[in-house]
Amino acid sequence: MKKILIADDNKQITTILSSYAKKEGLEPVVALDGKEALDLFYKYESGICMVLLDVMMPEVDGFEVCRRLRRTSMVPIIMITARGEDYDKIMGLDIGADDYVIKPFSASEVMARVRAVLRRINLPEQPKQNVLEYSNLFIDLDKYVVRIDNEDVPLTKKEVELLWTLAKNSNKVFSRDNLLDSIWGYDYFGDSRTVDSHIKRLRAKLDKCQHDAWDIKTIWGVGYRFEAK
Questions:
Q1: Which of 9, 29, 82, 143 fits 103 for a cystine, CB–CB 3.0-4.6 Å?
Q2: Which residues pair with 215 in a beta bridge?
Q3: What backbone torsions phi and psi does residue 107 show, to the nearest 5 degrees?
Q4: What's the number of CA atoms in the CB half-sphere (13 Å) around residue 215?
Q5: How far apart are CA 44 and CA 171, in angstroms?
Q6: Phi, psi (degrees; rounded to nearest 5) at 32
Q7: Can you give the pTM of this predicted structure?
Q8: Which residues pair with 174 in a beta bridge?
C-alpha cells in the first residue's frame, strides 16, 4: 500500500486526514513537526506517493521542509496553510509544491486535490521522445535533467516542465493560461501570476549560461515563446 506523509502539529487535523486517506487506499504516516516529517520521509521515501505539508510547524517550517525534499525528490507536495496571502501561495509553489490548501478546509477537498495531483503524475504515457536538444541546450524530461554546454542547470520540476513545453514548441506563443493548464493542469486553483513568477526564476537560472542561439521571449499582452534564433 502506498503511503501518504501527513505533517501538521495539530493532532486533530492529522487524525481526520489520516482517516480520509485510509478511505482512499493510502497508508498515513504522521509527523507533528518539520524535523519528524523529514526523518519519516527519508525512512519511507520509496513508499511515499504524496506529502501533505503544513506551513506553520515547530522545529522546521513547511517551506523549509519543502525546499529540502525538492533537493532530492520529485514526490508530489500539497502545502496546507492558514495564511492565504498571494505571496505565501506563490512562494510555496515556487519552491516546488504542487498545490496548496488554505485552512479551514474540508478533508474531502484535500483528498480531491490529492486525487487530482496523483492523476496528473500517473497519466498513461503516450509514445513520445522525451529528450530534446537544440544548439547547446539539452533537456531530458524523464530524468528532469537540463544541461547547457554539457553543464547541469539546477531547475525545479515545474521549471523543467515549463522549459520543455516552450522549447518543444519552438517559436509558438503560449498565453499564461495555456501554460497554467499545460503545466499545472485544468483543475489547478491558482492564477497566471504563478506562471510569471516561474518564468522569472527560470530565466535567471538560464541566463547564468551563454545561449545566443535561443531565448525565452516575452510577447507583451500575450505570453511567452521559446525563440530559436
A1: 82
A2: 227
A3: -60, -30
A4: 10
A5: 43
A6: -105, 0
A7: 0.60
A8: 224
